[in-house]
Amino acid sequence: MARKDRKNAGWSHPQYQYDPAGRITSLAYAWQTYNSGYTGTPILGQEYAYHATKRLRTAASFSNNPDWDGDLDLIRTETYAYDPDLDYLTEVDYNDGLANEVQTWTYDAAGNRATDSVQGSGWSYDNLNRMTASPGYSYLHDILGNRTWRNFGSSGVQRYQWDALNRATSVVGEAYGARYVYRADGMRVEKVEGLTLSWVPPGEEEVSGHYDENLAENLPTSRYYYDGQMRVEDDYTVEGQYEPVVTVMRYGIGARGIDFLDKRVDDGPETKGYPIYDGHGNMIATLGQTQGSPYYSLADLRSYDVWGAVRSGSTTGDPKQRYCANLGHVQDDESGLIYMRARYYEPWTGRFLSEDPKNHGWNWYSYANCNPVTFVDSTGQAAFLASLLVILIEVIIAAAVEIGFQLASGRSLDNLDWASVGVAAGFGLIGGVYGHFVRRAFYMLKTPLHRKAWVEGDFATYFVKMIGIGTSTSLKRNHFAPLWRAMIFGGAGHIAMELYGMYLLAHMEE
């Protein structure tokens, strides 16, 4: 790793530039040096260019390393290609001279990865978008869509366990593993490492063998402390030769997320660091200083692939915040998974281990709408704003249908019954809230087949409700008319779709 020490150097000082659309176009870091006055010396930089369609086209990386002549030199330029209709990322050229410099992907109709130029083919999914196979691996899930096994009964086995709230409580493989504890709001507060999985052959009169979870004598334990949902301290305890050794990492939270790192091992010297991020929020380096030393060092240099895996630099060790580090996301060294609060993300498959708790969109496992260079997931679940947008659309549709019925019955735009339009919009609001909050909660409790039946019935149910809401009011100049029509037609449609769901349950295979 290339390093440069500067005496009397201070903090990393970022500078940002944006285009008229508010998109970041350049990001440059400099450290401050003091010689009878402060002077900024460039360290690292990034420049971004966009298509007319607002997609990110290129990301250029600059560095003052290794010549340190005071100027940022172009190191490489990443280029991206997309599906023209769906905005899925289909190709990246890293231009970094490393293996697999160019990567391409294709997707099925539901947004699941179908091919990968690096990992190859062999990706398969069931009708609920649960991944059943990837190159070299097979997978099993429980009825709520949580992954339970990888390569059950063969090499590379991994077991995943979950609590009643669909939170992962352990991820254990043949050579590594950990179990997790959460607080009431779902934030992880403890991780215990040192777990492994072993196969126990069947004994006498036993039909089959089973897997045992083994605990090491030394169980490294991490405990996490938060301000809200941003981590402010990690305590990592491991058994030493004579007594436990405790590593404490503290974080300063600022406008960029994590703005300061402070590490101390037992009573040893402090190591202070300032994170350096790229425009996506990935921690690409730190500018650090050890207590008692006048020197700052540029260290922990990393680059990432577009899905979040470390491409160059160390894949383990501190800081644990790497991909989307400014959001506080943490990568677990023992599994490689990224903890994104509500769920765990797997960078090499580009998907989550469990369903989206908010059941947003048509694929509840995909990450960042299959476009990880443009989007991020701050909590591991769909944004609340997305649900509000869908509800607003349903309100508009309900009002528009009612207006259409009135115009068809002979009314003019100057003579519309706005009270009836208001009632229709109100029912659109009720239906939207029902469909996107209450009903989604029921999905978590039903079997996959029942859930599938309800999903297929959603569109028809809402359509029938809208017909009831939008029934012409010209026959009865009374704004209660759409009210009772909505109750009759909407209720009938709801019952019909429930019967349809029962029919599907009876005729579909497990």
Give the topology.
Blueprint: E1 5-7, E2 9-18, E3 24-34, E4 38-50, E5 56-63, E6 73-82, E7 89-93, E8 102-107, E9 113-116, E10 124-125, E11 131-134, E12 137-141, E13 147-150, E14 158-162, E15 168-173, E16 177-182, E17 188-193, E18 195-200, E19 210-215, E20 221-227, E21 230-239, E22 244-254, E23 257-265, E24 271-277, E25 283-290, E26 295-299, E27 303-304, E28 310-312, E29 330-331, E30 338-339, E31 344-346, E32 351-352, H1 384-408, H2 418-443, H3 448-469, H4 481-507
Antiparallel strand pairs: 1-26, 2-3, 3-4, 4-5, 5-6, 6-7, 7-8, 8-9, 10-11, 11-12, 12-13, 13-14, 14-15, 15-16, 16-17, 17-20, 18-19, 20-21, 21-22, 22-23, 23-24, 24-25, 25-26, 27-28, 29-30, 30-31, 31-32
Brief sketch in words of this structure:
By secondary structure, this protein is an alpha+beta fold. It has helices spanning 384-408, 418-443, 448-469, 481-507, and strands at residues 5-7, 9-18, 24-34, 38-50, 56-63, 73-82, 89-93, 102-107, 113-116, 124-125, 131-134, 137-141, 147-150, 158-162, 168-173, 177-182, 188-193, 195-200, 210-215, 221-227, 230-239, 244-254, 257-265, 271-277, 283-290, 295-299, 303-304, 310-312, 330-331, 338-339, 344-346, 351-352.
